[in-house]
Amino acid sequence: MDTTKLGFDTINLGHGSGGTMTRDLLDKIIFKTFNNPYLNQKHDGSIVKFTGDFAISTDSFVISPIFFKGGNIGELAVNGTVNDVAMCGAIPKYLSLAFIVEEGLSTDDFTKIVNSVKMAADKSGVLIITGDTKVVERGKGDKIFINTTGFGEVHPKANISSNNILVGDKIIVSGFIAQHGMAIMSEREGLEFESTIVSDTTNVNFLVKELLDKFGNKIHLFRDPTRGGLASVLSEITTDINKGITIIENKIPLEKQVAAACEILGLDPMYVANEGVFIAIVSADVADAVVKTMKNSEKGKNTVCIGEVTSEHPNKVVMQSLIGGKRIVSPLIGEQLPRIC
Amino acid sequence: MDTTKLGFDTINLGHGSGGTMTRDLLDKIIFKTFNNPYLNQKHDGSIVKFTGDFAISTDSFVISPIFFKGGNIGELAVNGTVNDVAMCGAIPKYLSLAFIVEEGLSTDDFTKIVNSVKMAADKSGVLIITGDTKVVERGKGDKIFINTTGFGEVHPKANISSNNILVGDKIIVSGFIAQHGMAIMSEREGLEFESTIVSDTTNVNFLVKELLDKFGNKIHLFRDPTRGGLASVLSEITTDINKGITIIENKIPLEKQVAAACEILGLDPMYVANEGVFIAIVSADVADAVVKTMKNSEKGKNTVCIGEVTSEHPNKVVMQSLIGGKRIVSPLIGEQLPRIC
Q1: Residues of A in contact with B13 (CB under 8 A)
Q2: Which of A78, A209, A282, A328 is the most buried (most CB within 10 A)?
Q3: How close B198 gets to chain A, by Cα (Å)?
Q4: Which residue ranges in chain B fall short of pLDDT 70?
Q5: What is the pTM of this model?
Q6: Is B341 within a domain?
Q7: A129 lies in which domain range?
């Protein structure tokens, strides 16, 4: 889109007024980009036909910087919510999309972000069906915040619940950890590592669907280790199940340059956010087949089984080190990396 | 809730980390307040059973100040989305709730807002089923922004669409206009009017349901004149219908003190935001009965029929003045009152 033709270089307060400037912004950028019969109703909301069990998830994205290596806030806002819906064992279908723009954001940047939303939505197979745009004064926001709320149809074979987790279940991780957090961090700190670290933001919904098609209720839980990283999510799971989790340190999938970057910045990769990685906790009898299926997929080619559920040390995650030592993995307490998503 | 027992006086970045501080905030305030089986799943999303046509609407609330005469951002965020869902001819059922908090917001204020969300949700008969909390650094937000996304079941008798509007249809307004905008404005400007102007924020979903129960598809359109006010919403409707709208100036329901405040501040009440007022465009043969039903309701006791749909002046709203003059009512262009909702 040639933004010089839009007639405005920046988003300003008038674009959030609900008057003709808002309509102009919507017509020239939003409706033009997403053009679908739901959004084209241009009403206060959209009407959709539903039958069955639906999963609903909401997330606001406040990441800084808004453009980073491997993506931007637009595609992150789609992938994040699509993945959250998928983690419920559902097939994402629709998204709502709400912007809070800081006055002065360039129309160019806004358009790039909207286009990324569209591209990511298309890749995930979801439609943007309703939205909202608000503008706040300079200094009262930070360029752009995006909320997406996603709706998905629960997979007919899915039965995802921490209540289903059994002793002996395997803990499988779909790819290298800590990439998203370290990409953002190196961007912020202006660090240049030997080769560039790129965010792993991507949609995992089709791989999740394939696993549910094949393994149904043998998949006991899905979770995506975003804020707080792998350590926090595993810890949170153990608090819910009255069982323990043991993971093997040298199985944790971690790229060398990400490990090096973490060391330089004094961060533990176990607590660093991921965006395109998920954890599956599955029945032991299908674990090898699950890993094989995941490794065959682009989104899961670096899948590893990192541990299992134990009757020992209930409510605790224990990491077994290379030389046989054991340590408890605590959840993240405060903030390691603010505004990572 | 005695916030001194929470152990933290302000919301800080750690509360948005996804770690134990986030969990603490959620357990002590959010889950405790909303306590329902959907939210208690504590998963990335909630699973809900749906059948039929559903209306979905999203809105981010960025109002400043966050506390104002007649309400606060919490109840506004519920009522606003509940009403948007109702305007689609639907019965609101569920809401998602996403906070973007600026570091340093007092726990007291946050708790008050959360309690107002709960109170407003109860009054509207909706459940908060999933949520999100993000925290941004001081100066990168403005106290608190809230996104709510609402889901409602389309009323079996509803057929709400601007395509159904006929020449002769009556334009009915449910109450005094411009109250919300002027309440916010006087708060901001520190003005004290003779008697206090109070925001009209409220939920209108039960009145909307009653109208649909009684008059079904004789109700052709509902709209709530929020941002941009009555003038902008009527203008927007005429752009969609290839017919005109004539309204009678002295029928517009406007309280004297609101009119006076508008005059002092140089604002046209037709462009000032409302939050608890809605417009119904209905078949002429039921118009009197609709007005009567609305007047019998607390939420519609000041209902007035202000005009009708005409074949003349298509795509234009014309206001007929007391002494017989006519003028075109244009939509709002830029921004009269930023951050009014």
Answers
A1: 334-335, 338
A2: A78
A3: 21
A4: 1-4, 192-195
A5: 0.96
A6: no
A7: 3-154
